[in-house]
Structures are given as structure tokens and as C-alpha cells.
Amino acid sequence: MRDIRIALDMMGGDYGPRATIPAAIRAVEKYPYLHLYLCGHSQSIHTFLNKHNALNHPRLTVVHTEQVVNQDERPDIALRRKNRSSMRKALDLVEQDQADACVSAGNTGALLAMARYVLKTLPLIKRPALISSLPTYENEKVYLLDLGANIHQCPETLFQFAVMGSVMANEVEGIENPRVALLNVGEEEIKGSDHLKQAAEMLSKCKHINYVGFAEGNDIFSGKADVIVCDGFVGNVALKTIEGVAKLIISKLRALSEKSLFTKIMIGILMPGIRKLFSKMNPDHYNGASLVGLRGIVVKSHGNASAKAFYSAIKEAVKEAQRQVPHKIKDRVEQVLKDEE
Amino acid sequence: MRDIRIALDMMGGDYGPRATIPAAIRAVEKYPYLHLYLCGHSQSIHTFLNKHNALNHPRLTVVHTEQVVNQDERPDIALRRKNRSSMRKALDLVEQDQADACVSAGNTGALLAMARYVLKTLPLIKRPALISSLPTYENEKVYLLDLGANIHQCPETLFQFAVMGSVMANEVEGIENPRVALLNVGEEEIKGSDHLKQAAEMLSKCKHINYVGFAEGNDIFSGKADVIVCDGFVGNVALKTIEGVAKLIISKLRALSEKSLFTKIMIGILMPGIRKLFSKMNPDHYNGASLVGLRGIVVKSHGNASAKAFYSAIKEAVKEAQRQVPHKIKDRVEQVLKDEE
Q: Which residue segment(s) compose the domain that A252 sits in?
């Protein structure tokens, strides 16, 4: 296995090094070929490395940065003023080909803006997309994109999202000839906006994509498709609605558990399983969401990410680096657009 | 209490009279001032009335119709060819002022198309919307609209949805000065499409609406607002995603229950409570969704509606008829637009 080098934004997320350091240590222990660049305040990083007896780990390199992008900082401000931040440094290392991928749990808007600025989109790609996988009823995975990288809508963008999603499902998840659907308000061909209908027509004509038609919101988890494509506005609302439902269920179960000692014990026993399920349903918490369509690999972990969630995001970055996802996307898009001419 | 007359489409939904007859009987038993028109195949209706010993109920009037709108029928076809259907008859009775409201569990698309054609939109109203309430963490209710009556997007439509949602929350749910939010991909003012920003500007200037800003998908259940407004595409995806999550959780709990006799018993005990919660989260199943912005009251019950769900939809129609919701919407919209001039 060739060496994989990943740059981590150690300061991002609610917990900073407290969560990112244990995740980094666990990752290098798991992958003997993994080298990590730990970008952030060196003093703070050293303190936590010391705490975990990993000060002199040969595959953990501390890269000192002074600035931190705040969770509520405006993306345009972060882009202009925080070019000496841990987030920016992690992206710069990918751009300079010193790292194969980067992972951050920082401010999503700032990360998207910086990543686009630093890494640039792949040739022929109109817009990048945020993609992640969710579980289905049958314990399969379904990729959903765009989860909010941009809210622009056009048929060509949706078509390219389908191509990128298909590559991800194929390369990262190993799904042969992934079934791709467009998210719509009905399954009938006459439903939806004109740009959706145009995207559907483009997809059904494309021999490189296994297009299976429209899917509705309840089909996300039904296993009808391996990749579900929508614009970033709709994807973001869907994802956050799922997060909201998860919180609602947990709050209701908690209320139910207060009813009697019996229900309290029962729900206490079930809760870890339920929480685990929900964390899977919120991909952001689970294995991170990936920004695809750029010249480098960027994995976004949730701002709330624990060490475990950040570790999962690193694993995702390792997988994508091994499969050289950006190259595969570039090749596939070129191939598809060439055939179209 | 003045008499309320409601026309029911007895043939709609998966179960037809098997579900709609018990619901109708329960409703007239509950409300002594309620008179129901039972539109559908008289023979089939009589059979079920007989079965429930309600053949000669003085407040149940059978209105014979020959045609039935199929669940998968195209709306435009239903509109053209099914003008002797139970669905159409129920709407006609409202239009002719013989009924104060109508309820159907039939084909949603067909109902929307027929309702618009038969009842027409209220003066000044650009487009009708499908609205329903969902539970919040704190056991309050939040109204969400549009759930898919139309997928057209424009600031004026969103603004009118906000007015109509505000009237519903105020009149039907009794919420004073309801807080209204626009569904967006972030809370910051700079987020979202231009038409959302324009709608936000219109709402923040309007003294008749208690506009509280943008809300995200996870805010639907958080109690941040009493009314959440979005276009029909986004609302439909959000609602169906909630339905998908509910099914996913139940399928996962079932899988978990297979693990041991212990978990089987525990989950068996919890399941009814969990199912009940989910039925509340899918308003369509629970109390129906209402089509607002028309000259009459139309409540849509789920195609899958049980007698209980159909009964809830009738109750919702009674409430709206008592509060004369269409009149209130008309007055409020006139008032708001007058002030704008």
C-alpha cells in the first residue's frame, strides 16, 4: 500500500484538539501507511499529544498555524482574513501536493469557500457538491448530493452531480453500476421543474450513468437508488430535517422514559442503539461529508464531532485518497462529455 | 353552535368506505351540529352503513356518484374525465354552498387540480398551498407550508403563504401573533436564493406578520417558529423525508427486536408509543393537510388513512369551518396588501 498523507485542521469544531488529537492517534495506529499533518496551534497540539503519550510519533507532524476560523465567521471574511489559519493551511498542503486529502470539522461555509478558492474545481466541472452516504432500510448505503455546497440550480449541474455521485458510490463504496435517481416531488415524468426534467432527459440518454428515474423524499432510505441527486438547497433542508427528526425522537423517548421506572430502564437500555442509528442518519456526524468536484480531497466532519466522528472522517479521507477520487471524477466527466459531443 | 355541513369523498384512499364510514359515524356522534354528505357509490356506502347500524342516521346523507378517481390517475385526466366522481361531487357541494368544507383521502394531485378548478383561488391570492401542523420538542405545534400544492417559486407567493399560515395558526390553533419563519439553508441574512431574500424583506416590513427570520431544516421541530414557510418542492421533500425517517426507525427497531427475546419484549411494549409519535410527525396520516387559499375548505387525508386518520381529517375540517378560515384569509390578505400600497 502506498503512503497516504492527510492534512488535518486540528482547531476546527467545538472541541478542537481535545477531539482531533485522539482521532489522529487512532488513525495512525490503524493505518501503518498513514502520515498526518496536524495543522493548528503547536502549543495546544503538543499539550494533547503529550497527554496521549504521542509527542514523538514518527507519522504525526505538527504544522504550526496562528489563526483559527470561528464557527460563526462569515465565509467571505474567513476567506479574506484567515489565510494563516489551521483550515487554510490544511487546504494549502493539499494544493501544494504535500497532502493527498484534508479533513476539517470547522465552519462549513468557510471551508467550502476556502476549498473552492485554494483547490479550484476540476476541469469541466461547473460546481462542486457536498456528498455523503446514509443508511437504507436494508443496511445498504445511499449517497445523497448536493447537501448544500451551492444553491444554484441548473440541469447541467445536476447532471454532473449524478456523474460525481456515481463515481463515489462505485469507487468508495464498491457498488457496481450504481443506480442514480433525481429527487423530485413525484415519480411521474411530468412532475417537477423544467430544470429537473431537462436533467432527467440528459441522464436517461447517457450510457455511462445507470439512471433509474425520479425518487421522492421517502425514497432516500428505501434503497430505490444508490445515488440520489438534488440541488444544494433541497439537499441541505432534507439533511437538516433528518437531524431534526432524530432530535425530536430522542426528546420524545426521554419524555416517555420519565413516565415510570419501567420505561426509564427500558429506554435507558435501548438509547445507545437508537443514538447510534441516528448518528448514522446524520452523515455529517458519522463519517463526514465530502466536497467533490475539486482538484483535491476535502472531508468535512461535523462541528459537533467527537473524536470518534473525526476519526471516521479521517477514514473516509483515507479511502478517497486510496481510490484517487478526484482523478476518477475528472476522467469520468471527460468521458461522459466527450460522448455527448 | 351553528350547523356545520361537510362533504366527504367516501371512495378515496386505499380503504374507501371501509375506513370512511366508521370515521363519518364517529364524527356525527361527536358533533351534534354536524351534517355529513357521503359522496360515493350508494350501494357500497349503504352496505357499510348497515354494517355499523347507521343506515337511517338523520345527519348522514348519501349522495350517489358513479365514478371514482384512481390513486394513480393523472391529475389532468381526472380533471377532464371524472366530473361525476365522488371527489368532484364533494368539491361541487362546497362550491354550491351546500357544504362548508370537504374531506378526501383520494389522489392528491387530482384533488389539488379539481379543487383549484372547482373552488377557484380567493381574490388576490396567487396560489393555494398545502399546509399541516407537526409536533415540536415541547409538544407545541408548528405549521409547515407549502407541502407541495405547487412548485412555482416567487417572493410574492412565499409572502402570501406566510399570511395564510399565520391565519391558520391563529384561527385554528389559537396561537396569538404567530411567529413566522422562512425555511432556508442558514440563518444568516445573506443565505439563500434571491427570491427568499426578497420574501424576507417583504415579511420584515409587514406589520401584520410576526416575522422571526430564517429557519433551517432542524428548526422545523425546535419550536423556533409557529409557522414555517417554503416553496412546495422543498416542503414536499421535507415532509416525505420525515416519512422516510419514520419508516427507517421502525424497520431498525424491528431488526433490533429480533436480537433477543428481551429486546423483542421491550420493543413490543414501546412500539405503539413510537408509532403514535410517527403518525403525528406525518401530518398527512394524522390530521390531514389542508389546502388553503381557495374559496372553500378542502382537507386532504392520507391515501393510506385509517378510519381514525380520516376521522381526524373530518375534525380538522369542522374546526376550519367553524373559524371560517377562507374568509379570514381573504380579509387578512386584503388588509396586508392594502397597507402595502
A: 132-282
Cis, peptide link before residue A194, omega less than 30° from 0: no
**Quick check: is A288 in a domain?**
no
- Whether A302 and A105 have beta carbons less than 8 Å apart is answered as yes
**Same domain (yes/no): B148, B259:** yes
In three-state secondary structure terms, A74 is coil
What is the number of structural domains in chain A?
2
What is the three-class DSSP state of B37?
strand
- What whole-number distance in Å separates Cα of residue A256 and Cα of residue A264? 8
Bridge partners of A143? A133, A227
Strands (E), B55-146: 60-64, 101-104, 129-135, 141-145
Per-residue pLDDT of chain B (341 residues), as tens digits, is 789 999 999 999 889 999 999 999 999 999 999 999 999 999 999 999 999 999 999 999 999 999 999 988 999 999 999 999 999 999 999 999 999 999 999 999 999 999 999 999 999 999 999 999 988 888 789 999 999 998 877 999 999 999 999 999 999 999 999 999 999 987 666 677 888 999 999 999 999 999 999 999 999 999 999 999 999 999 999 999 988 888 888 787 777 777 778 778 777 777 777 777 776 766 655 668 999 999 999 999 987 778 988 999 999 999 999 999 999 999 999 988 887 76
**Using CB atoms, which residue from A109, A245, A263 is nearest to B245?**
A245
Q: Does residue B232 lie within any of the structural domains?
A: yes
In a mutagenesis test of the A interface, which of B252, B256, B269, B304 is the best target, namely the one with the most A β-carbons within 10 Å?
B252
Which run of H or E residues covers position A197? helix A194-205
Query: Which of B151, B238, B274 lies at the smallest CB-CB distance from A237?
Result: B238
B313 CA to centre of own chain: 8
For residues A172 and A299, what is the distance between their CA atoms, to the nearest angstrom? Answer: 13
